[in-house]
Design goal:
Elements (H helix, E strand, L loop, with lengths): L1 E3 L2 H13 L4 E6 L5 H13 L2 E6 L19 H7 L7 E3 L3 H4 L18 H4 L3 H16 L3 E5 L3 H13 L5 E5 L19 H7 L1 H14 L5 H13 L4 E10 L13 E9 L2 E8 L4
Length: 282
């Protein structure tokens, strides 16, 4: 595995790879790897000739007062974890190269970023779209792989790629869960034992939503109300949102059809967690 930190070097490598007709697959990450990340890398290894994993904790996608400074980082651990994953290049750019002094260009995806996460993190997706576009320009992937846990992010990136004719195939991979059902996340490390127990209500509530859907319920509000009831049985949880929307457009829907997603966000103490379920794909 080659470790590259210089942007120009990464660009040159990508140009050479593309020149000889090989397929570059990118897995963008912020590091502190877990099995969810590794599942993306395994899929990436199958899809192309050169597998690039980027590791960059992107400050522009954190809102003021969020956990950028304390976000878990352990480069030695990450490097060891992916040593046998078939990663060809680990791209670890420096903050000052990604956002040099005087940097002032950002990318906005408009309507898709307003609901759900956008209500609580208004500049988050601006940072996500900007850094992903920069990584695409530097690494020049044919394919990029993202996890479905950040479902709104996946939809936003697909829209950006289509709107800007980027020519990158975007693949979404299913959520990987812990043995107790909690969706894997680097932020799970923040949870105390009691908070983790309370956070399991997310998965329980989504299972209940799935049961209702499979029993024939198609009224979004009935499912949302039930999901909230399940979550609110636990003490110390604040619900940011529970929403059911069209899985492709994220528009509100009155009846659940063939393409719908239920997405939710909660706070357990100071820890914010998200989860989702695509109806029919349980």
């Amino acid at each position: 595995m080659q470790i590259v930190s210089n942007i120009q070097e990464m660009c040159s490598i990508s140009d050479e790879v593309r020149k000889i007709g090989q397929i570059i697959v990118l897995v963008p990450t912020m590091g502190y790897f877990h099995e969810g990340h590794l599942s993306l890398m395994r899929e990436g290894r199958k899809k192309g000739d050169v597998l690039v994993v980027s590791l960059f904790v992107n400050p522009t996608q954190f809102e003021e007062g969020e956990d950028y400074e304390v976000y878990p980082r352990d480069f030695s651990r990450d490097k060891s974890l992916i040593a046998g994953m078939g990663v060809d290049i680990l791209f670890v750019p420096a903050l000052e190269e990604m956002y040099p002094e005087g940097y002032q260009t950002f990318l906005e995806v408009e309507r898709l970023t307003k609901p759900m996460e956008g209500q609580f993190r208004p500049t988050h997706f601006r940072g996500v779209a900007t850094v992903v576009a920069k990584l695409f320009n530097i690494i020049k992937p044919n394919i990029a792989i993202f996890g479905e846990k950040d479902y709104q992010q996946l939809v936003v990136i697909r829209r950006m790629v289509e709107d800007l004719n980027m020519g990158v195939e975007i693949i979404g991979m299913p959520i990987v869960r812990e043995g107790d059902g909690l969706a894997m996340s680097s932020r799970n490390t923040y949870l105390t034992l009691e908070q983790r127990k309370a956070a399991l209500s997310l998965n329980r509530s989504l299972k209940k939503a799935s049961e209702l859907y499979r029993s024939g319920e198609r009224n979004p509000m009935r499912i949302i109300d039930t999901v909230k009831e399940v979550i609110e049985r636990e003490e110390g949880i604040i619900i940011d949102y529970v929403e059911i929307r069209d899985a492709k457009t994220l528009e509100e829907i009155e009846i659940i059809g063939d393409q719908a997603v239920i997405a939710l966000a909660i706070k357990v103490g100071k820890v914010r967690l998200i989860d989702n379920l695509i109806f029919g794909e349980e």
